[in-house]
Specification:
By secondary structure, the chain is α/β, with parallel strands linked by helices. It is built from eight helices and five strands. The radius of gyration is 17 Å and the shape is elongated.
Length: 169
């Protein structure tokens, strides 16, 4: 059990499949490492057998699946889909709040996220969320915070810096 679940999400299915597995089961804060998540989405569809056209059409309209399919057959896939089928909203709609690393693409995040949105410039410090969407407070143990993080940990994840930032906030 935890007071908050944090999902690290980037555009690589290999590295972020775990968050996609747990996000629908344990909603939480998404730390969005990339605003473009189409490769992540397509990897998830291939791994789970999900109908890739369904969410693409839901978020971007009935012509979007065809646009995505055409872009696949070119060497300009990201260039052709970044502005039209980034799948950012697909992940953000599942989040209780989102932390990004830049302000670029925030309109898409805001259009899909129900909770607070914060920008934490790399590598730190973390800015406080806006008062428009205050973070929920833990109720079980006032004054204490249980924090759960899972996934692939390597040196560039800077785990000790994350723990230190949370401890000092």
């Amino acid at each position: 059990s935890s007071d908050v679940t944090v999902h690290q999400v980037g555009n690589s299915y290999k590295f972020h499949a775990g968050s996609l597995t747990w996000l629908p089961r344990m909603r939480g804060v998404v730390i969005l490492h990339d605003f473009y998540l189409t490769d992540l989405y397509l990897g998830w569809c291939a791994a789970t057998g999900a109908d890739e056209a369904a969410a693409v059409a839901w978020w971007y309209g009935p012509d979007a699946p065809e646009l995505l399919d055409k872009a696949r057959r070119t060497d300009r896939f990201i260039e052709l889909t970044a502005a039209t089928v980034p799948m950012t909203e697909w992940v953000c709609a599942q989040a209780l709040g989102v932390v990004t690393h830049s302000t670029w693409g925030l309109k898409r995040v805001d259009s899909a996220t129900i909770g607070p949105i914060s920008v934490a410039r790399m590598p730190y410090p973390v800015e406080r969320p806006s008062s428009r969407h205050p973070w929920p407070r833990a109720g079980r143990n006032p004054g204490r915070l249980a924090f759960l993080s899972f996934g692939m940990i390597n040196q560039n994840r800077r785990v000790e810096r994350v723990i230190d930032a949370i401890a000092h906030d």
